[in-house]
Amino acid sequence: MHKNTGTSCQRLQEGLRKVVRQAVRGECQARYVATLNAEEKQAFESLAPRRLVFWERVVRSELEMLVHAHGESAKRTRRTYFPFIGRGQPTAQLEWEPCWVDLCHWSGFRREAALHSLREPAESAFLLALVLRRLNDWVPQVRAAANFAVSRLLCRSSPAVAVDAILTMMVQWGDWGRISDDDKHFIAGILADPNIKAAFVERLSAASSGPMALALREALRTDALDTHLPAIATSSVQPAVRARAYRALLVGQATWVERRRWVWTDVRYCEGRLEAVIGSRPLAAKPERMATLKSAAVDRSALVRKVAAEALIREVPTFGHLALPLAEAFAADSSAPVAERGQFAMRQIRGPAT
Hints:
It comes from Piscinibacterium candidicorallinum. By secondary structure, this protein is mainly alpha-helical. The protein folds into 3 domains: about 1-180, no CATH class; about 210-285, no CATH class; about 290-354, no CATH class. It is about 60% helix and about 5% strand. Strands 1-2 form a two-stranded antiparallel sheet. The radius of gyration is 27 Å and the shape is elongated.
């Protein structure tokens, strides 16, 4: 299995290097996967967004080799016909029209020009993810150009491609230090589009693996998914996604990590830690709490039932003895963490034993 995976990765690298050479020669621009066969195209589109940094390095290394090979060829030509020219003389530069490969170029001018040149809808999530990644570029002008390019391409691309790119970005931007909070809220706000929202909810609910709970947390920066949270909580395949949705519904607010800041614990020994700065907002639509609690209490995952038991403890002052049947059910749960919380809720309801 490992051998086949390595062979597939090597084949994809060769295919990517091939289309980079074609793009530099002007044979293909935004439709950069048109020259791959159906099998390579399918594998390329499924692997590339998840390994974005790796594929960026492949593109940049191929560009460097093309520029170096062109420089060496120009040197040999000039010395053949003009042998009196010294080695220090400048040689012809390899030039091409700005296209998608320049999104990975080492020059900020080329990256900015590439962002302005992209007008057609993105055919692959890889291309759209490359554009989204430029929101974390180290050049401010490139980040500004990426903001306009993202708003232009996301609306023109198909919902499936847009959702793939947005999911890839949401699970990675926690490690990005230059992307602004406004850009994050803007990307989350794209989910207000009905077609993109439907594709995003379907992907969250149907995915059996991957950091979908993290993507849901980031998507809740805006109220685009608030009305879909009950459906996500009941029908998602992953327990972590259901637990995240139930927690937001039971608490009545959405939370996410805005950024991480350094906090000194002992300045004398230069000891400290990164502390998360939590952002929050109230949900636009708040369902009935008791009905939501009863739904979460019968979930097949102990992780979700634990979230429900914690919410019940918070709601004991509100529900009073009406919460006793739920507390008894939690106390008899087969999961120890759920049972402990159910027993605690029962003691709160019944009062201290005499």
